[in-house]
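hey can u check if this looks right to u? its 269 residues, i copy pasted from the old doc so theres a chance i mangled smth
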Amino acid sequence: MKKNIIDYTLFITTDNEEKASEISNLLNKYKMDNITTNIILTPNTGRDVYPWLCISDELSRYELIGHFHTKKSPHSHAFKGKSWTDELIACLMSDIKSIAGVFAENDKIGVIIPDIPTLFKLNSGYDGIINENRVLCNSLWEKMFADKIDFNFFDILTPIMSYGNMFWYRPKALRPLMSIKTDELNIPDEPLPNDGTVLHAIERLPVYVAWKQGYDYRVLLNKDRLLNGFDYAMFEFDRAEKLRLKALNSYGIVKRLRKKIMRRIRKIF
């Protein structure tokens, strides 16, 4: 954030006063003159989507919005989630001024999404839109555009989307999506399934809603050479291998001592 010398408002959502106080202290510690901060309390539900929709009216007053969250993937290995999150954040926040310039130069750009994370590029078996998501996407589409249902998510193979639901957008381009009432969403309680909920469906909608509104999208490539999923995996494997060798070494010492003791016992008898 310090690298981006532009003025902007930072909205941070959290669910209680204690966390809000911690966040405020951190912001004061790393205070930057170009940032106005606004900490908002929302219910702890719906992952990043529910709080985002809760503050949509306030966000609609701005020309350009970046949506980010502290993504976690408890259903997957830690190195996968970390590689995924690091890659998205670096891609979308390393040069905010240039991203804003793309929107300024072309008023028909409604959404900028990050490139597919390395983890998913290497996972050819991943299906970005399972049937449950297709049904939910169609249902949400009908809510937003009841006057003309001209799109069917069963007609697409792989969705154009931000894997992880982090992206930049014009509020005007996503107005129908941002106008969905949170009390109309059937958000399941935690722990959520890995996929197939209304939250996962909303993650797949922004580019298509922008198209419907007459806007286009762009994919932002990551200029930095980040560690990919394999590199993170190797860190884990390397650590595990060191622990294994250490354990084997300890076992070898015990085994040698055992042989030495047995030889002495034979000499005695």
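The longest helix spans residues 229-268.
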